[in-house]
């Protein structure tokens, strides 16, 4: 569950605390050989449409790396172009004097067709393409005259292409075409063969018209300009490479920024990062720390070959400055005249080294800039950096951070540090805490003085609470603590801030709690007020943290010092933390402590602390099972936030609403809402984990999508940092339900092992309501009877004096499971009826329905045992068996007695609740239970035939096939055998008259557009029998 902090972080875990400062599978698919085709839907459609209407000319423009060739490849790979003659050539670099090279390369690919009747003029083509001489007509006599040969070549090319029938000629990089090639293409456009399709690609950097002439009116012309990928398209491409790991916070933003959205650059970067497989650690760190791929270095070097000296110097100057800047500044940094600099910039833009979308030139993407910068010799780099810093400073053009980086690169450490800290201070004032955190971290790394690092670390520790801090921030603060010997008061403050930082954002619960505990002795001496707040921060429990007794020890210790605190804001923060700690522990004193938060606030900061406290109480009461109280707490939190700006605490209220909706059965649209919140807070691990958990639960029970649910549930458990009792337990329980449904009790017990171990180690049994009942079921199912008994005993003892109604209801379910395991089915059914009533009283209909379903199963088992006992008595008395075949299974439908009405009624009640919730996965399970016991739920005269239409089950299978799901995944989602799915797929193909799964997807998409899920309007009248 979740709670808030005094320093509200932009990113952090979902159970934050008050501090002392001021206001695949799931692991990804690994590297891929090439990214799949992403985006470009409209461009593909336009290109295909044009090529269907010859004669036509299609001009595909885009900057280098944007994917013009890939677009052409994708379209020409389609089956509809299979009967065309494909000819393709690329214009070489202008430095290579090879006239007509693309035409010669393209025509060299012509198939040998000796039977084709060709005009004699085509023989001249052999002068350009010798490979064709053996089957072209003899060279015309007139071709001996060089002046006449050019005209004959144009006529011969046109005739040769016309004779081929449907043809597509692709000429790439026409911006590099030599004059002879352009003349030949111009002439071809003047009189195109009727079945010719001409596609040319060019770089759009110069911004000049393709081919440099007006295109003829009688020929269809389509001009397509490719733009770099959007952030969403970059996300799609990243998912193809990395699978679920593409959801790592900040990954897409970083990839998009470093590659400029250019597919070629994206592929080069991820190809280098993922060489040999996906990174073992953080993908974000790997991408951020990656150097420039060799392929991009070579590409940039080739584009800079034969540059003038001025152009080389301007490119170096642009690399040093690092952002779009005027030509005048570049001239000053490069130390050349402005006119010469303009000519140099023009050359660099034409060669796609720089771009000039606006008035100021810059590199096309950061990796090009990095490659150019790393190519500058170090002594020259220092001189250029100093020159750039002075030029920008004089003009007042550069942000302080840019000046800082330039002075540091110039070796002027003192000036660089001054500008770094000034830039960080300004960013803090302006609310850009992420930038400030990064700058303070860099200042600590660059500062050679211990006292300077200590002073900066104090600022960093406070600012980082409000930003997304990574390991570099944590390491910087730890370096100061370990190496620089700060004074006791500052040491205590740094450790407290570090502990809160680890707790809220980037570390584990134990690390954070231990840092806070280490801070308290120093704070008790130097700052008792802050020491009390640190004690209360250490008192908020976590399933990943200490044993419960340690939290109580800090609570008691804080209460002895609390009377010394007089500041209203500090007292409000202490009240919020104390009420939160007691509530998360299920302590009955929590309600009295919560009353302290009802006091009127005298300032906005005091109100913010009360709002944080109510938000924490919302999550705590949810974890305990007090849904009605949770709503009251949530309303108070929302009201308190209306007068203050606290984005992080607002995020906590959103995840609380998701969990409330889950527990109370308001599942309509819940998966989409959870998906939205997951994406909205992807920078904050514990908020992401809670939202992802609800998304996974909805995927399982509402969508019935087992593979997707498993990915979300496992990722939620990995993501949560400071779990206060819901994410780890609920995700483990759901994963265990999947295994139990598939008949894998051993794997189910493995799935809950970590969560149960943490409950046993911490003694936080009040958080066990989600996982302990399913753990008991899995343990009994896998034969671990003694362990199951011990778990029930420990659970009962752990909640004995706790105010945790959900845990008490869960204990009732556990006791029923024990009776069931001991074949006391009637007693188990009675206990489960009490559990159902308890869950209903807690406004948790799903848990109530599960208890009812379990009760029905027990009644069926009890009836089965009773029927078997009576049958044994009859056999013992010598009564004659009925029927010619002895039955060996003991399902109740196979005896002489009808299934008990009570069992059927209870199971139907569970089904009705599931139906109201939209729990399709659970409805299917109940129907399978009834079928196994030969219980028919509705009367019907016979099987409903569907003729050539898909049955409802086949429609469901077709929908999953259309999603690209494998038979095994579909079988797991629908809880059917793989062989059954294979039969369904074969039947679908037969009814749709298709031969592959791809065609099923296409037919399904067309049916969806027409609003017809099957192939007809419904079952035919004659099919009902």
Automatic annotation (TrEMBL):
Among SMART domains, the record links this protein to:
HTH_LUXR (SM00421)
What domain of life does the UniProt record list for this protein's source?
Bacteria
Question: What are the protein's GO molecular function terms?
Answer: adenylate cyclase activity; ATP binding; DNA binding
Keyword Mitochondrion part of the UniProt annotation: no
Q: Where is this region: Disordered?
A: 865-902
- Keywords on record: ATP-binding, DNA-binding, Nucleotide-binding
Give the matching Pfam families: AAA_16, GerE
Sequence ranges assigned to domain HTH luxR-type in this UniProt record: 943-1008
Under the heading InterPro entries, the entry gives: AAA_16, P-loop_NTPase, Sig_transdc_resp-reg_C-effctor, TPR-like_helical_dom_sf, Tscrpt_reg_LuxR_C, WH-like_DNA-bd_sf
Question: Residue spans with biased composition (Basic and acidic residues)?
Answer: 865-899
Which GO terms of the cellular component aspect does the record hold?
A: cytoplasm
The biological processes this protein is annotated with in GO are: regulation of DNA-templated transcription
Q: What is this protein called?
A: DNA-binding CsgD family transcriptional regulator
Species in which this protein is naturally found: Streptomyces zagrosensis
